[in-house]
Structure formats: C-alpha cells, structure tokens
Amino acid sequence: MKISEIKSILEADLICGEEFIENEVFTACGSDMMSDVLAYVKEQAVLLSGLVNPQVVRTAEMMDMKCIVFVRGKQPDEDIVELAKEREIVLLRTKFEMFTSCGLLYKNGLKGGCGV
Amino acid sequence: MEPLVLHYDVSGTDFTCAGEASGKIKKTLKELGFPASLIRNVAIAVYEGEINLVIHGGGGVIDAEITPECISIVLTDQGPGIPDIALAMQEGYSTAPDNVRQLGFGAGMGLPNIKKYTDEMIIESEVGKGTTIRLKVFVK
Ligand SMILES: Nc1ncnc2c1ncn2[C@@H]1O[C@H](COP(=O)(O)OP(=O)(O)OP(=O)(O)O)[C@@H](O)[C@H]1O
Ligand SMILES: [Mg+2]
Question: What pTM did the predictor assign?
C-alpha cells in the first residue's frame, strides 16, 4: 500500500514528507508504548500512535520506519515535525482513534506482524 | 586501521534530546556503509541504553569505537546504580515512575532488548556510584 493510500483511507492530513508519499509500505503496528515497539516490532514500516513526543520519531528512526500516523487528531509541535523532516519520515494525522485506524488499514490490506 | 572513536554527553534532564547520540551513531554507521540490519541492531540497543541513561541514570556519557570488525559502545552514568542486575535484566521488571510511562517508556523491556540485539553485554553497577554498560556487536 502506498503511504498516499493510508492518507486517504484514514482521511488524514499530511504534516510533512510529501516527497515520500508515493512510497510503498506493507506492514504497520499501533502502540503508545515505545518500549513495546522497540522490543516487539520487526519490520513494520508504519507506526500508529496516540503518543505525541519526540521519542515517537526517534523510535521510528532507530527502527527504519517510514511513516508515523498520529491518531485521535493529535498535532505534533514544530520540534517534532522538524525531527521527522530531517529523518525523512512521513507524518500523518487522522481524527480516527487507534482501534478504528488500525481496523481500516488492516481491512484494506495492510498487515500487522507485531509479536515475538 | 585506527578505530573511529565517538563521544557524546547525554543530559539527565532533557528527555526531548534523548536519542540524539543514538541517532548520530546510526548516521555515522550508515555513512561508513555497514549493513542495514547491523545498523538497526546497534541503533536499537544504544537508544534503549541512552533512554535508560536519561530516565534512570541522571544522564551520562556514551563512547563508541568503530572498526570494520566490531562496534563497541560504552554507556556510563553516575546515577543510583542497579542493586540487583539479574532482576533488572528480567523482561517486565521496571522501577520507572508513572511520568516515564506517560512518555511511552517503562515497560521493563530495555535491558533484555539490548541483550537481544548485541553479541556481548556487560553491566557493571554499584549502588550510589553509577552504572557502566559495555556492548559489542560483531560484523559478521
Ligand atoms: N542506568 C541505570 N541506572 C540505574 N538503574 C537502571 C539503569 N538502567 C536500568 N536500570 C534499572 O533497571 C530496570 C530495568 O531497565 P529496562 O531498561 O529493562 O526497563 P525500563 O527502562 O524500566 O523500561 P523500558 O526500557 O521498557 O522503557 C529499570 O527500571 C531500572 O530500575
Ligand atoms: Mg529502559
């Protein structure tokens, strides 16, 4: 699935990373616990999170993720956006909550893969 | 060949900057052309260690030594120390306070995760004096 399709499925706003929006991603995970993302996530390229702080971007950076979706309409501040731009990570914001966001993407063919 | 030596100070009060050193180490390894999977393993391990420096150790330093054969990382702090290292190494054991959990950490997964992503992990710690964690990842 292209990141641009994630954007339209989730009726999301693009915060940054327009130049990467046609890149393909195959798997995603959703978590507010960065500890769990670091410990359990394998190759997922998309991180959905209700947590908004710089460590969400750092975590994605360390794990080579391509896109972060902030759920429940959460808007990251300018520092977070700057961090993501430097790391070439796409940031999206959707008004849907976590469960609904994950469900919509899963239904449309994006796979999970979280787990040990 | 001389090893490449890197040194970073990690603030114990600025959670916003936590991960800065790990990001720089990751970038350096990328520029040196190491395999992506190895870079990721090192990055995750150092980042977990850096977060621990900030949330448990009161800040500290990270030293890295890079050769074509091995990436060595040493994380040092003068924080409270770890009274029971075997216990701290258990998955799920955490003394992180609620405010750390609200930031997305404190699941007690960091130390076991560091172990998982490195070839060598040695913890030296003395209560009241501080903690040193030595990591090695070999380039296979
Ligand atoms: N540098 C340190 N100084 C003092 N105590 C530490 C240090 N690093 C770890 N600890 C202790 O070991 C425990 C386990 O650490 P670990 O990194 O596994 O989990 P955590 O940091 O609590 O949570 P997570 O890493 O999942 O966010 C910590 O809760 C803390 O009590
Ligand atoms: Mg930790």
Answer: 0.96
